[in-house]
Every structure is written in structure tokens, then in C-alpha cells.
């Protein structure tokens, strides 16, 4: 009787993940950058006597962006005379794990002691996109995120905010993304069974104002693994003051 032995080797390539790709909850998906790829390769070996045959197959799963409520910082209170146009500036920071689009809503104006004409809002701000990602590691002036998760970032344009150790604890600090190295996702050659590991994407960060320079290891400038990094942007809203 011929005896056949089967050996299955399965590998999943993505830093921080060792769970079944199809069984990811929203919370788990949000713990990895949207756009990241989970690469799963399976090699099956069949042995019959002195003969061994192998076959390899692979599949990729792309991590979704999970919507998250952004952080909005309102402008300061202002005063103006009748007929003045007052401009308010708002800052919005992404708290998502990937690129998402945000649309400012209508401005609600409540006039007190104002007769016709009432105060009116200027044109609503246009929709805009903000990037978000989950940090895999930090180095001198850099952080890494999964390959494929940097869509939306523009070198020397995008600004992000993330928790960074300032020597006394982790605080939100702001940085300009000055370079984006996209990295490469993991891949497998089925004919040989050889898998090439992922090369993470690298973001070069320049501190804004008093932010600490990013470092590797512990101390002022250190960034913890798993921290969310979120792009932020500003938009303005004009209010035309009515007559008292």
C-alpha cells in the first residue's frame, strides 16, 4: 500500500498581525492602516516513498479604512460691526486608520438682538480628504506604516499629528511629511514557493514649531508602536454680520 504524507506550511506576512484574515473585526482592522495588505501563502507537500511534490498558492487581503470621528478645533470668538465679514478658521484632524473624505456641514447662525438683514453664512467649505495610519516603528526622523497605506500623503504638503514622548509623557505633536517611501507588499512565487517579505513604507517627518524630533528607542521624540498618526487640515467659514 502506498503511504502518502501531506505537510502544509502556511505563512501570513504583515507586521503586528497573526490572525485569520477573513475573521478580522472592525476593531482589529482599525488597528492596522487602511490599504495595508495581508499576504497569505500556503504550501502543501505530498510525500510518496522517496518522491515529494509541492504546490503553493497565495491570496491577498486589503485592510479597509474604518471611519472614525475626527477631532475638530474651533476658531476663537470674534467681534465685529454691522455689515462686517468675520472669518473663522477650523482645524480638522483624522482619527481614522486610512484615507477618508470629510465634508463640512451647513453653518447654523443664531442672531441675538439683530433685525433684518440677519447674519448670513458664506459659501460652505468644500469637502477634503485626510490621511490616517498606524505606526509600525520609528527611527531617526521617521516612522513606518504598512506598504500600500500611504495614498493621499504628499511630500512637503501633508502635515500630521501623533503622540510623541516629550520627555515627560506622550503628547500630540505636529510634523510635516517631507518624504514618502512607499515600500512593497509581500509576494509569493507559486512555482517555487518563495515568499518575499513586505518592506514597510517610511515617512520622513520634520517637526513643526516646538515638536520633538522623532528618534528610535526611548526618550524625548520616541513614538510607540500602534500609535495612530493623522493628517490635519484647516478650512475657513465666513459669517456676514447683520444689522443690530
Broad structural category: mainly beta
Low-confidence segments, given as residue ranges, are 1-25
- Mean pLDDT level: 85
β-sheet strand percentage: 35-45%
Count the helices. How many? 1
Biggest sheet, in brief?
A: 10 strands, antiparallel
Total beta-strand segments: 17
**Helix coverage percent of residues?**
under 10%
Q: What overall geometry do the principal axes of the alpha carbons give?
A: elongated
| Order of H and E elements | EHEEEEEEEEEEEEEEEE
First CA to last CA: what distance? 101 Å
Please give the structural blueprint.
Blueprint (H helix, E strand, L loop, with lengths): L3 E10 L12 H5 L6 E12 L2 E12 L8 E3 L11 E9 L6 E3 L17 E2 L6 E3 L1 E3 L2 E3 L2 E4 L13 E7 L4 E12 L5 E3 L4 E3 L4 E7 L20 E13 L4
Antiparallel strand pairs: 1-2, 2-3, 4-5, 5-17, 6-8, 7-17, 9-17, 10-11, 11-16, 12-13, 12-17, 13-16, 14-15
Amino acid at each position: 500500500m502506498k503511504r502518502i504524507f501531506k505537510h502544509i506550511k502556511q505563512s501570513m506576512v504583515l507586521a503586528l498581525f497573526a490572525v485569520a484574515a477573513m475573521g478580522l473585526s472592525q476593531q482589529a482592522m482599525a488597528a492596522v492602516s487602511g490599504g495595508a495588505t495581508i499576504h497569505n501563502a500556503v504550501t502543501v507537500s505530498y510525500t510518496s516513498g522517496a518522491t515529494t511534490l509541492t504546490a503553493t498558492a497565495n491570496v491577498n487581503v486589503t485592510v479597509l479604512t474604518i471611519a472614525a470621528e475626527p477631532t475638530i478645533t474651533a476658531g476663537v470668538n470674534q467681534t465685529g460691526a454691522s455689515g462686517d465679514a468675520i472669518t473663522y478658521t477650523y482645524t480638522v484632524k483624522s482619527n481614522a486608520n486610512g484615507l477618508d473624505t470629510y465634508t463640512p456641514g451647513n453653518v447654523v447662525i443664531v442672531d441675538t438682538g439683530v433685525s433684518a438683514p440677519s447674519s448670513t453664512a458664506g459659501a460652505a467649505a468644500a469637502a477634503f480628504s485626510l490621511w490616517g495610519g498606524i505606526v509600525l516603528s520609528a527611527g531617526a526622523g521617521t516612522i513606518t506604516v504598512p506598504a500600500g497605506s500611504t495614498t493621499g500623503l504628499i511630500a512637503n504638503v501633508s502635515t500630521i499629528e501623533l503622540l510623541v514622548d516629550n520627555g515627560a509623557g506622550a503628547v500630540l505633536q505636529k510634523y510635516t511629511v517631507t518624504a514618502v517611501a512607499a515600500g512593497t507588499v509581500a509576494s509569493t512565487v507559486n512555482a517555487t514557493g518563495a515568499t518575499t517579505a513586505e518592506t514597510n513604507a517610511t515617512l520622513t517627518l520634520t517637526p513643526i514649531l516646538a515638536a520633538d524630533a522623532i528618534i528610535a528607542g526611548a526618550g524625548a521624540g520616541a513614538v510607540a508602536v500602534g500609535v495612530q498618526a493623522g493628517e490635519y487640515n484647516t478650512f475657513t467659514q465666513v459669517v456676514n454680520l447683520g444689522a443690530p
